[in-house]
Amino acid sequence: MSIMLTGSVKERRHASTMNIDRLSTLDMLNVIHQDDAQISSAITPFLTTIARVVDNAAATLSHGGRLVLVGAGPSGRIARQAADEYAPGKHPVIAITTDGEAASYERGVADLQALKFGEHDMMLAVTVSGKTPWVWGAMRHAWSLGSPVAVMTGDAQSEAAQLASMVIAPELGPDVVAGYANAKAGIAQKNDPQYGDHRAGGEVRARLQQPARGSGGNQHQMV
Question: How far is CA 204 from each of CA 62, 122, 196, 222, rounded to the nearest angstrom?
């Protein structure tokens, strides 16, 4: 994904931070902290949709299906991290990602077919722009099977959003410093699917993360 200063909302310069390089360290951190606080407010209108995503994921897993997270580039790395932290190789929450094939619609379809993605599985796509052909291909294949499809994106009108029945598209505005590959979007993308994965699998009880089934672990982590 390009990080050049284009017309994208997320890549435009932030009016409140034009002179951030002239601030003291404390003032700079205060500006960043205040701006990051807006992420939570931007997500609030989508809590009902997020609840639908979690409930659909829970139903999918309880009936033996898989939750498949897809993303390209930085979004793909977030998807993979969320899946790996859930329980790497031990639970049907998996990620398929790409870096070099992001421009290939056909490759997105083929990668999902290779996974033997079926109608009883669910997809959660993570894409800031919503315009990545590889993600479209994977999403359209899932959609064609009648599987539940959700997307986290920065553009509610994007091609990816049109392929999903559940769309999480918070208006985050420009980053504090333009050119850092959509830092705000990365924060929003990471938190929601990660906690949702654990909740869907019944691994959060009484504010404790329970050991993943099949992980052999015995530690409880605060979440």
Answer: 15, 20, 10, 9
pLDDT tens readout for residues 34-44: 777 778 888 89
For residue 7, count other CB atoms closer than 10 A to its CB. Answer: 6
Strands (E), the chain: 67-72, 93-98, 122-127, 149-153, 166-168, 204-205, 208-209, 221-222
Strand 166-168 relative to strand 67-72, pairing: unpaired
168 phi-psi bin (left φ>0, alpha ψ -120 to 50, beta other) = beta
Low-confidence ranges of the chain (pLDDT < 50): 1-11, 179-182, 184-189, 195, 204-223
Domains and CATH numbers, the chain: 9-201 (3.40.50.10490)
